[in-house]
Structure formats: structure tokens, C-alpha cells
């Protein structure tokens, strides 16, 4: 029931509008067509991994529409749920996106000499392909506060067409900066949905601290580890997560070194009103402690064994997954 799978099918049906309604109808039609086969099965798995709770709710709707006994169904998810799936069997797969669209396999094929990548004058990186009002305000303040110390991409993904009203909103928030915005980033990140997870070019690897704008931030609920939470370690960087409360702790519990001696991740459980302020405070302290590019480069040398260990953990988690791989995602 994944979005990317329905996109692949959608390629050959260009007369249809690619929106949520089409997607719901298409998935339901497929299930209806094969319902007799499904109803005879001992067990039915609804694979809703790599998705928000929206798709899991669609699985519930299909189960209820066709009066399928709940006990013969399992819903696979990648997002923490509270009461949304009460009464349904479900399995949480935190690692579903550890190699999303084969991004990590493609990265390894580049044979990058990570240790020889020279950090530049912009120690902070923040990428936002999908624009939201929350992200626009965050990006505007990030640029105003840290200026040339950060490389930034915001709202320049072609996958999220905007209405004129939304475009004007983001332009007003970002003023005097342009929208869409990009500074110090590689144009390779602007690509089709099937290519956007290819290695982006080494310009993006020249920052040490990465602000990871997860799919679910404080405007959503449910901890959701997308490929972005693994890319930061695959790219040999130090993470700061703009995500739902508890996200950083879940990443830590997977075994990743969060560099708590460098970054205070107490923002992870901060009240929404101070979450952003605590992140900016950590960035200010980092820049004060490591004011020059030489300082940042020396820091990375000191941390290098830990940085490499994080990437090795990505490889280990990818290879030792307990849930069967889904071919469209590596």
C-alpha cells in the first residue's frame, strides 16, 4: 500500500490525477479485484511501511469495508501509533527505510573516500524539499541567525506543486530571502521521485552538523524514521533532529552515537514553543566553541572513529533486518 508503489503504477495512467483520492480508490480497487484470493488466505498482510499513519488508516478501512476478521490481518507500519490501531494486529518496523529506494546501496557504489572530503566554511546543513509553514519559519530564522555558516535548501523539490496562495505565504515568510531557496547545495538533489535518492554530489558532505527535517515534525504525531534519519549517518555527519518528541531517543536506542558531548539533544522532549529555540541555542554554542573551519576540521578528526562507527551501524542494520525487504525500496 506504499505511496511510491502506487506512483510506479500511476506512470502509465497519465489521464488520472495523482492525488490522495486516486490513490485510495486505486488500492481499494486492487484489493476488491483479488478479494476472493485474499479471503481464502490464512493471513493477510497490509504493508503500510514507509508511510505516515494515513496509509495504515486506509488498511483499516479496507479491513472494515470487506468485513475481514481482524485476527487474520497484520498491518506493517514504520510509525509509532497510540490509539489509531487499537484492536488491530500490527508490527512496527523501524528499519523499513534504512535503504529507501536503494539510496545506501547507491552511496556505497560511489566508493567515496569520506575521510578526505574537506569540510568548508559552512559547518551547518539543513535540507527541506517539502515546504511547510513550520519549516519556512525555521529556515528563515536559521538564515537570519547563522547566515553564511549554513547551507540551506527549502521548497525547491518539484514533487510538491503549490497553489498560488501557498507560494505567496512562503514568499512572505522567507522575505527578504527568495522562495524556493537554495544556498551552497548541489542541484543534483532536485530530481524526479525515482532519482532523488541517488548520491547527491559531494558538496552536501562538506558540512559537519546536519539539521534533519524529518517527515513528521512538531506539527504531526508519531515517531517516523524515514531515510533522512539514516542518511545523516551515511553522510558521516552529526545530527540534530527537527522531528516529533522522542525521535532522537529512538535513534539513540538503535545504537547510534548521538555525540551528546558535542550537541545537547534535550530539545528532543522540549515544549513545541521552545523546541526550535533550544536547537538554535545548540547551534550558537557549537559555532562559539568551533568558530573557524580549522576548528571544525580538527573536531571531525577527533570524532572520526565514532563517525565511521555510525556508518558501519547503518550497514549492519541494513544487512540484519528482521522484516523481509520490499523490492521497490532495496
Describe the structure.
The chain has 330 residues and is α/β, with parallel strands linked by helices. The protein has two domains: 3-92; 100-319, Rossmann fold (3-Layer(aba) Sandwich), CATH 3.40.50. Helix content is 40%, strand content 11%. It has eleven helices and eight strands. The chain has helices spanning 3-10, 20-33, 35-40, 53-65, 103-109, 133-146, 164-174, 227-234, 247-253, 272-289, 293-319, and strands at residues 44-47, 73-77, 90-92, 124-128, 150-154, 181-183, 209-213, 238-242. The strands form two sheets. Strands 6-5-4-7-8 form a five-stranded mixed sheet, with helices on both faces. It has a three-stranded parallel sheet with strand order 1-2-3, with helices on one face. Helix 6 links the parallel strand 4 and strand 5. Helix 6 runs parallel beside helix 7. The longest helix is centred in the C-terminal third of the chain and has 27 residues, at 293-319. The chain is globular, with a radius of gyration of 21 Å. The two termini are 16 Å apart. The model has no long low-confidence stretch (mean pLDDT 88).
What is the SS-derived class?
alpha/beta
N-to-C CA distance: 16 Å
Give me the count of strands. Answer: 8
CATH architecture assignment of the largest domain: 3-Layer(aba) Sandwich
The main β sheet shows up as: 5 strands, mixed
In total, how many domains does the architecture comprise? 2
Question: Which of globular, elongated, flat, extended, rod-shaped describes the shape?
Answer: globular
CATH secondary-structure class of the largest domain: Alpha Beta
Provide the gyration radius in Å. 21 Å
Mean pLDDT: 88
For the biggest β-sheet, the strand order reads 6-5-4-7-8
Number of helix segments? Answer: 11
